[in-house]
Amino acid sequence: MARILGGIAVSHTPTIGFAVDHHKQQDPAWSPIFQSFEPLQRWLDEKKPDALVYIFNDHVTAFFFDHYSAFTLGIDNEYHVADEGGGPRDLPPVKGDAALSRHIGTSLMADEFDMSFFMNKKLDHGLFSPLSALLPWQQDEGWPTRVIPLQIGVLQFPVPSAKRCYKLGQALRRAIESYPEDIDVAIVATGGLSHQVHGERCGFNNTDWDAQFVDMLVNDPEKLTEMTISEYATLGGLEGSEVIMWLVMRGALSANVTETWRDYYLPSMTGIATLILENNARIPPVDTLDRHRKHMAQQLSGVENLPGTYPFTHERSLNGLRLNSFLHKLTQPAWRARFLNTPQELYDKAGLSQEEQRLLTERDWRGLIQYGASFFLLEKMGAVVGVSNLHIYAAMRGQTLEEFQKTRNQQVTYSVAGTR
């Protein structure tokens, strides 16, 4: 099974990444930050976790307010650096662990957390600013460990409560520990501490509260779950209330932890704390993890016995992402015009494989499904090429339209709504 080594908490202020990129590690104003990070670097180097479950919030870079989720888990193989307005930082992409992500996502959904999932998104300073100071990296070799990004939506209210974040951490522990592979995992929580970056209260800090919060996080985290977001904002600034994300990390650890490092520095706008908590988990005499894996599998148990049925799982979605992205763009008039007039040019532009090109060119509807296409994208393609939904249904069953229509109560044809 997977083991949780412990948790790290750090600020994700962009000043950390700025100082890294401009080689300010020895400057008097910046050096305390990097001195504070050194024990975290040593801990990670000593423990060598196979993966970091990395809790952060995006800053309206990859995620926008037109579709804003509370809890969003990355399920991709790698994550690139986002451009936040001044060009992307010169950092290599970080590798993900799609299999571990899928397991965590399935577990959290089974525990009734209504998760969102993302692929093919670039991530901003919420992840990369502290990561670039925590881990060694080289452009040609990348980072020394994999990252499972867990994004918390804390910028558009209502946001998850402190108690919900703590419960998410408890569910995250079950998810990680029930992963059957023999790997070591560390939990990293980012954000905070006290700060406010908008309005007339901009520049607010509260060092006394910062110290009290960290102390309670270590020794009495459940008391922190009783506080409201307004109370967090009152004590630590509105943006400082993002420290509720630290409760996800704390909830994922054992009730009793060993604190091996704590430090604090307030250079400018944000109270920067660093914290290491080592896990003191105990293994019960009964196999609760196998029971949890059965709980995770309950909803889809038996579906594998249904002939001609292909659940659109995270694995199929990731494997078919390039093809499905191509099909999704058929909702754009210019893209579908090029698809009808110069398909090969479009195939090349999208980097489709020879097999993907063949499936599209031959209109192999059943083959496309088996490959990993979503039906609800195939019906869009049908509307573009003038093939009705009923023709596609018949092809799925290996029948002519006439043969399929005989199995229906009414002999009608239709497609998705449109003016064509």
Overview of the structural elements:
The structure is a single chain. This protein is 42% helix and 13% strand. It has 420 residues and is α/β, with parallel strands linked by helices. The protein has an 8-stranded mixed beta sheet, sandwiched between helices. The chain has a two-stranded antiparallel sheet with strand order 4-5. The protein is globular, with a radius of gyration of 25 Å. The termini are far apart.
Gap between N and C termini, in Å? Answer: 55 Å
Q: What series of H and E elements makes up the topology?
A: EHHEEEEHEHEHEHHHHEEHHHHHHHHHH
Number of helices: 19
Structural class of the secondary elements? alpha/beta
Properties at a glance:
420 residues; alpha/beta; 19 helices; 10 strands; 42% helix; globular
In a few lines, what is going on in this structure?
By secondary structure, the chain is an alpha/beta fold.
Q: Topology of this structure?
A:
Elements: E1 3-10, H1 14-21, H2 31-47, E2 51-56, E3 71-74, E4 78-79, E5 94-95, H3 98-110, E6 116-118, H4 125-134, E7 146-152, H5 162-177, E8 184-190, H6 207-219, H7 221-224, H8 229-236, H9 246-251, E9 257-265, E10 272-279, H10 288-297, H11 314-319, H12 321-328, H13 333-341, H14 343-350, H15 354-361, H16 365-371, H17 375-385, H18 389-396, H19 401-405
Parallel strand pairs: 1-8, 2-7, 2-8, 3-6
Antiparallel strand pairs: 1-10, 3-7, 4-5, 9-10
